[in-house]
Specification:
The chain is an alpha+beta fold. It has 5 helices and 15 strands. The chain has a single domain, classed as Creatinase/methionine aminopeptidase superfamily (Creatine Amidinohydrolase, Alpha-Beta Complex), CATH 3.90.230. It starts with a helix and ends with a strand. One cobalt (II) ion binds next to strand 4 and strand 5.
Length: about 230
Amino acid sequence: MAITLREVRRLVRPGVTTAELDRAAARVFARHGARSAPRLAYGFPGSICISVGDEVVHGIPGARRLRPGELVKLDVTAELDGYYADAAISVPVGRARPSVGRLVAAGTAALRAGLGAARPGRPVSAIGAAVEDEVERRGYRVLRELTGHGIGRAIHEPPAVPNHADPAASRPLTEGLVLAVEPMIAAGGADVELLADGWTIATRDGSVAAHVEHTVVITSGSPLVLTA
Ligand code: MF3
Ligand code: CO
Ligand code: CO
């Protein structure tokens, strides 16, 4: 997971196509005997999800060429020996505009805050409460329709892990629970829409979105990050 993200991130530059990035990810998977979980579980038409600009998640790799100043989200979910892990990063193309840099920093800080709030006995919603707090403090919005999730023997397992203080997420965290925590945030409105390709989810108002994700294990102390 971490190796794939590192290798693909290295290739992010103006002019590269998202299909080229996807092929690089596929090569890392093959080298390690891992398989693309989105393809395996849902028939996703790519090895990893690559979302650009106002696209938030589930973008399909293709002929699109990255342009300077854009923000690309690389979301990697792999299966190996029946186990799944999920991680995402947001990478500016070329030199980051200050506004894009601040948005990414907010996503990273929100993930850290969410993990900092994750302790056994607290409800799952404690994570989202901390995430949203951090995001709003920095002037951005959580895209509430999109959540993290349990993960382990399948890509998506219960419980849902909202990025806000959702009262429905009342299940207590327990030691050993494995979660994908993934703030999805935007600079503008909080609404998202499904694009005509049937996969890509984008912000409705076209504002830039950021996404960062780690798979973690709940422990008695700080969660153990599996995808670092
Ligand atoms: N990696 C995504 C997540 O964080 C799942 C992608 S599965 C897809 O949950 F098929 F929808 F792409
Ligand atoms: Co993911
Ligand atoms: Co996920």
